[in-house]
Write a structure and sequence with these properties.
Elements lengths: L2 H36 L1
Amino acid sequence: MTIREKLARIAQLLILEINRADREITEYWRNFFNKEQDR
């Protein structure tokens, strides 16, 4: 495995992680705002 291949792999994994975290954060805020509006 070349360094370039390793970097590409790491970048891929990072992007997947960021996308997942982004979804979780979006869900959290959506739930938070919905609770605020219910009051």
